[in-house]
Amino acid sequence: MVEAGVRVRSDSGSVLPDMSKYPWLTTTLAVVMGSLVSPILEQAGFWGYCQSMLERTFSGPAAIVMTAILFALLPHPPIHVVLWPKLILFFFTGLTFSAMAYLTKSILPGIVVHVLGLLVFFTLVFRSEAAQPRPDA
In sequence order, what are the beta bridge partners of 7? Predict the structure, then answer.
């Protein structure tokens, strides 16, 4: 729940919203848009533009690692988790997308994998996480 622009914990103690309060169509559209917009923009920006620019100056492997580091340093959700494991996870995620873009010379395979990954997150992980009370609540 957000009050005055600040995210607060719900009654269950979770920082994730209870999507059962919204109509089915609204929830479905939110999941679909959340699963499409971020992958398309991130793939185009990081691997379509940034990595291709780095490949003009550096070797392919160096550009892959640099792009993965930049991707890992972004403020990814969830915000309340320990920083190092999240940095490692998103570094390897960025490394995977970087290698896919480099090897295929296309961002389309990365978009497909990214969309599917977020759909799994939103429909399985996000839903079960929202139902779990936080230990510090």
Answer: 2
The span from the CA of 123 to the CA of 135, in Å, is 23
* pTM (two decimals): 0.75
Residues in the chain, pLDDT under 50: 1-10
Q: Which tens digits make up the pLDDT trace of 20-34?
A: 888 989 988 988 898
Boundaries of every domain in the chain: 23-131
